[in-house]
C-alpha cells in the first residue's frame, strides 16, 4: 500500500496522475530550519522527517500489521540561499513577493520514499529555476486578497493566479507545483510501483 504523507491537495492530485490507489496520512512536524542549514539540506530533511512521522503514526494506527510505503515531499522557494516558507500575514507575503519581483529564484522540491518493513529509503531533490517579472505593490495587495498566497511557499502558486508573475520556468513544472512527476515515477519504480502499469491496469 502506498501512503502520501501530505495534506496538500496539489500533491494528491499530482500523485493521482501516477498511481490510482493510495492512502493519505498528513505528517505534522517542526519545519523550522536549523541554523546555517543549507536550503538543499533543509528540503531533504523535511521530506525525510515527514516520511518518518507518517510511518510512526501508521504503525500505531490502522496499518500496524499492513505493509506500506510512504511518499513524502517538501517544496521551498529559495532566493540567494534564503528559504521562503509560507507567509503568516500580508506583510510577510508582501516582503516575499517584493524579494521575488523582477528576478530569478529557485524552487526546491524533495521526494522521500520509505518502506519501513524492508528499511528501504530513497531521497531526491529537484531544483527548478523560475524567473518573475516586476510586480507592483498594487498587484501584491490584489493577489493577497485573492486568498491564494496564504498557504504557499514563497507566497505564490504557479498553477494558479500566481502564474501571471512567471516569466519563465527552467526545470520541472510539476516540481514547482509540489511533486516532480518524472523523478517520483522513477523512485516508485524502485519500490515495484510502475505508474503506467498502475494506470492501465496491466
UniProtKB/TrEMBL annotation:
The keyword Cytoplasm applies. GO terms for molecular function: dTTP diphosphatase activity; UTP diphosphatase activity. The active site is at residue 74. Keywords: Cytoplasm, Hydrolase, Nucleotide metabolism. InterPro entries: ITPase-like_fam, Maf-like. Transmembrane segments: none annotated. The record marks 10, 75, 159 as: Important for substrate specificity. It catalyses: dTTP + H2O = dTMP + diphosphate + H(+); UTP + H2O = UMP + diphosphate + H(+). Its EC number is 3.6.1.9. Pfam families: Maf. One of its GO terms (cellular component) is cytoplasm. Its cofactor is a divalent metal cation. It is found in: Cytoplasm. The keyword Zinc does not apply. GO terms for biological process: nucleotide metabolic process. Belongs to the Maf family. YhdE subfamily. Nucleoside triphosphate pyrophosphatase that hydrolyzes dTTP and UTP. May have a dual role in cell division arrest and in preventing the incorporation of modified nucleotides into cellular nucleic acids. This is dTTP/UTP pyrophosphatase.
